[in-house]
Design a protein that fits this description.
Elements (H helix, E strand, L loop, with lengths): L11 E3 L5 E3 L3 H26 L9 E9 L4 E9 L13 E5 L8 H4 L2 H10 L7 E5 L16 H16 L9 E6 L1 H12 L6 E5 L15 H14 L5 H7 L1 H4 L10 E7 L6 H14 L5 E5 L5 H18 L22
């Protein structure tokens, strides 16, 4: 209502009954008020746009399809959450976030289990702006090329899938406008792909990433480590090829930060993750901190899976939005906000 102060003064006088009325016709006063409010709202929107704040947006719509892969020899399903104005603003291009699902999930899991609603809530509250979210089916691949060469998922993802999405949708096809995110197996994949391909991706946010330090020797056949060995047998061999596992492990890749310089990193994990992944996440935090790599890490109160993501996925999406660089919203590289050994509520 700042603009109302600049209106010509309207002289008011009280009637004998004490009510207030104007010396000008009520219609004219109404026109002044409506015009003033409309202009004030327009100026407020302009100020917000220049300051880089996100403005409230309509909900996303989910579209699913398939990409034919020569590398894998089959089609791969995917779903993409499109901004509410995607079909009406036919010239607008958008940043893209690739969301990588966890083990025993698929391309529809992010939308079906609540991820899309979390994004819609952030959009409608104006906390983030518009970007695409693309989730491909990855089976149990861990987003790597398998040891036996039969499932070259990493090659498919970077050589076929990302270029296909850039062709089919109005993306901003540059690294600063591409992010990777994921949970559990997908968190592992986001870190792995981001650290190995920083020329394609500018930001990574991983939640409850399946980070494991070196396996005990010999590898147990029962208990937690036995479960890990069985789950990892597809991409990393059976029996587990520890050298190949270590070569792909984000904990190993983090030892050479010069190879992913400039990559913006965020990761968090529950303090009582039922698979014990908080140990690997805390180890990654220590490695990056010791090597003075800018990153953001939070150990949060919670377990694993969608009970955790429902509470905390919004922080990953907020991080990604601030990493994207749409007009008027260029982000600075994040500084380390982690506190080794501490917890974030």
């Amino acid at each position: 209502m700042r603009l109302l102060r600049s209106l010509p003064r309207i002289r008011l006088r009280r009637s004998r009954s004490g009510s207030v009325f104007s010396c000008v016709p009520s219609f004219a006063l109404g026109v002044w008020l409506v015009a003033a409010l409309a202009l004030d709202l327009s100026l407020t929107s302009l100020v917000r746009a220049k300051s880089g704040d996100a403005t409230p947006s309509t909900s996303t719509s989910l579209q699913c399809g398939e990409v034919q892969s020569t590398i894998l020899g089959r089609s791969v399903g995917y779903c993409v959450a499109l901004p509410g104005d995607y079909n009406s603003s036919t010239t607008t291009r958008y940043p893209t976030l690739y969301y990588l699902h966890g083990l025993f999930e698929h391309e529809r899991s992010w939308g079906d289990r609540g991820g899309q609603q979390i994004l819609n809530d952030l959009l409608q509250s104006g906390q983030v702006g518009e970007f695409l979210v693309v989730s491909p089916d990855a089976g149990k691949s861990f987003y790597v090329n398998s040891l036996d060469g039969k499932e070259r998922y990493e090659d498919f993802f970077v050589k076929e899938f990302v270029p296909a999405i850039d062709r089919m949708y109005r993306t901003r096809a540059e690294r600063g406008e591409r992010g990777l995110s994921g949970d559990s197996m997908g968190g592992y994949g986001a870190l792995h792909l981001g650290m190995r391909h920083p020329d394609l991706f500018g930001s990574v946010s991983a939640q409850s990433a399946a980070l494991l330090p070196k396996f005990p020797n010999p590898v147990p056949t029962e208990g937690r480590w036995g479960f890990y060995a069985r789950v990892l047998s597809g991409p990393f061999g059976s029996p587990l090829n520890e050298a190949y596992f270590d070569a792909n492990n984000p904990l190993t890749l983090a030892e050479h930060p010069e190879q992913f310089a400039g990559l913006k990193l965020y990761f968090d994990c529950g303090d009582h993750d039922r698979y014990g992944f908080q140990e690997g996440n805390e180890l990654l935090d220590r490695e990056l901190t010791e090597k003075h790599v800018p990153h953001e890490f939070h150990l949060r109160e919670g377990d694993h899976g969608w009970s955790y993501l429902t509470q905390y996925m919004k922080y990953s999406l907020l991080f990604q939005w601030h990493c994207f660089e749409p007009t008027g919203h260029q982000a600075d590289a994040p500084s380390s906000k982690s506190q080794p050994g501490g917890k974030t509520p």
